[in-house]
Amino acid sequence: MAEQIALDRLTGLLAFARAASLGSFTAAARSLSISPSAVSRSVQRLEARLGVSLFTRTTRALTLTPEGRELFERALRLLREVEEIEQAAMTARSDPVGTLRVATSLPLGVHVIAPALPAFRRLHPMVSIDLRLSDRFVNIVEEGVDVAVRIGELGDARLISRRLAACRLCAFAAPSYLAARGTPQHPDELSGHDTVNLQYQSSGQPFRWPFRVDNRTIEIVPQPGIVADVSDAVVAALVAGGGIGVTATFLAAPFVARGDLAPVLADYAVDHHDITAVWPESRATNPAVRAFLDWLAGVFSDLDR
Q: Around Cβ 302, how many Cβ atoms within 10 Å?
C-alpha cells in the first residue's frame, strides 16, 4: 500500500511538471503517452494531498499559482532525473528501440522529414516516431523532446548539435507570371512586380528577403499583394501566378521539377541559416537517437548539393 501511495505521488509530480512546462493537460498527455484525463486526475490527486491549488484553470490555458510556481522547479528536477534513468536503461540496449520524440518546424517536417520516416522505420522497426510540428520555439528539455531540427538560432548552448545542411533562400515565380510580366535581372527591379510574402506567426513581422549583392547580403521588405503566415500558402500562391516570392529551395524544389515554378534572381540566392539537429546531453548515448541522427544526416545531405 505504501508503495502504491509513493507511486501515485511520483506520477502526480511528473504529470504536474509536464503540464506546467507545456501549458495544458492535452500537451502533457501527449508528451507522457497517456490520456488528458489521466493527467488531470493525477494533478487533482496531488493537489488534494498537498491541500493547495497548483494551477489556475481557464478554458484556454493553465497558469501556475504561487504555490505551483514554488513546486514547479523541484518537480522539474525530478522529471529530468526520471528521464535520465530512462535514458540510461535504454542505453544499456545495443539496438535502437522505443519512442523517439522529434520536434521541428512545419516546412521541414512536412516536406523533408515526414516523407522519409517510413524508410527510417524499415531500418529500425522497433523505433516509433512521435513527430511534433510547430513554428513555436520548443524547449526540448522541459518538453521531453529527444531531437529537434531547427533552422537558425539553436537557442540553448547546453544542447549538443550537428549541422545537417544550409537553408538556401531564393526567389521563385510561376513561368506564366514571368512570361506575362518579365523576369527581373537584379533585386532592384523587384519593385515593379507583384510579390507574395510570409508573415511570421510568432511576431507578426514580415519576412525580410535576403540577397547576396557585391559580396554582401542586403535585405528587402517588399510591398506584397498577398501575405500568408504559412510557407506552404506562400508557395501555393506563387504556383497560381500570384507574383514573385522568396522561399527555401527545399520547399520549391518539387514545384520546380514539375515546371510549376522557376527560380528568379538565382545568382543572388543566399545560404541564410544552417539547418541543425539538437538534442540534450542525456540523450547522447541513446541508440535510437544515435541511429536517427545518422539517418538525418543522409536525408539532409541532398539539400547541400
A: 11
